[in-house]
Amino acid sequence: xxxxxxxxxxxxxxxxxxxxxxxxxxxxxxxxxxxxxxxxxxxxxxxxxxxxxxxxxxxxxxxxxxxxxxxxxxxxxxxxxxxxxxxxxxxxxxxxxxxxxxxxxxxxxxxxxxxxxxxxxxxxxxxxxxxxxxxxxxxxxxxxxxxxxx
Length: 150
Known about the structure:
This protein has helices spanning 3-21, 34-42, 45-61, 79-87, 113-122, 129-136; strands at residues 25-30, 66-72, 111-112, 139-141, 144-148. It is α+β, with helices and mostly antiparallel strands. The chain has a three-stranded antiparallel β-sheet. The protein has a two-stranded parallel sheet with strand order 1-2. The chain is extended.
C-alpha cells in the first residue's frame, strides 16, 4: 500500500461510515505506539514518524467526520515515546493526555469494586466476591484503588 492510501485510510473509512449511518464516528486506537517501538528498534524511525504524523493529521485533526477519539499507548519512559510526542503529535494541538496517575477518568480504566459486586449480586453470585477480587483486583489509577481487570 502506498503512503497516501495508508494516511487517508481512516479518514476515508470515517466518511463512509458517516454517509451510511449519518453520524460522526468515534475512533478507538489501541497500542498506537507499537509501530514506533518497532521502528526505533529496527532503524526505520523517520519513515514511521512521517507515516504516523500524516495518518494522525488526516484522522484526528482534519477529519470532519470525527466525533471524538481515544488513543491508548504503553510506551511510558521509553526514548521513542519522548521523541514521538515531539514529532508525531506536533499537529495535534487539542489532545488531553491521561495517564495512570491522572485523576480524570481514573475509575474508567476498568471496573470499580462497586460495579463488579453489583454485577455479581445481579446474577446471584455473591459467593464469588472474594474469588473475583483476588483474580482481578489490584490496579490503581489516580486516587481510584481497587480497579478490576483494566
